[in-house]
């Protein structure tokens, strides 16, 4: 696996980054779905799975895309212009890019966790492979976005120079 070397000599390995993302996604959502299953039964799990419909409707996806675009614009302003509030622009940019990452983490985690819980509660069915496949695709998307975000913010900051 190719590594991206940053300016401080550290490396970002895509495979290890994907494993970290997978662990984050599955741990958070599996715990949530297990508690939901124990306290609310199948209805609780249905609510969580159906919440994906709300997250991935047209309006939600357009809003996330606009947030990501604004985050990239703020990053460009932070990186290439010498504003007095450079750190503010960087933090806002990073937060807006995180919304896209969170959406893919949520989707991947719910799909993979649902497949795991269904496997233990009901048993194997062929459709579970589709859930896991789409969940893994979503995790790969979030991994790419995290990799992209880290690459964006790895470049050393240009110091703020004031003219008198």
Poorly predicted ranges (pLDDT <50, ≥5 residues)? 4-9
Question: What can be said about the biggest beta sheet?
Answer: 2 strands, antiparallel
Strand coverage percent: under 5%
Q: Identify the overall geometry.
A: elongated
Number of strands: 2
Q: How far apart, in Å, are the first and last alpha carbons? A: 49 Å
The chain-level structural class is mainly alpha
Number of helices: 5
Overall residue-averaged pLDDT value: 83
Biggest sheet, strands in spatial order?
1-2
Helix content: over 70%
What is the chain-wise order of helices and strands? EEHHHHH
CA-atom Rg in angstroms: 19 Å
Task: Write the SSE topology.
Elements: E1 3-5, E2 11-13, H1 14-40, H2 42-55, H3 58-80, H4 86-121, H5 127-154
Antiparallel strand pairs: 1-2
Transmembrane segments: 12-38, 58-81, 102-121, 127-148
Keywords: Membrane, Transmembrane, Transmembrane helix
Structure notes:
The protein is elongated. A hairpin with a 5-residue loop joins strand 1 and strand 2 (11-13). The termini are far apart. It has a domain at 10-52 and 94-154. Helix 2 runs antiparallel to helix 4 (86-121). Strands 1-2 form a two-stranded antiparallel sheet. The protein is 78% helix and 4% strand. By secondary structure, it is mainly α. The chain crosses the membrane at residues 12-38, 58-81, 102-121, 127-148. Keywords: Membrane, Transmembrane, Transmembrane helix.
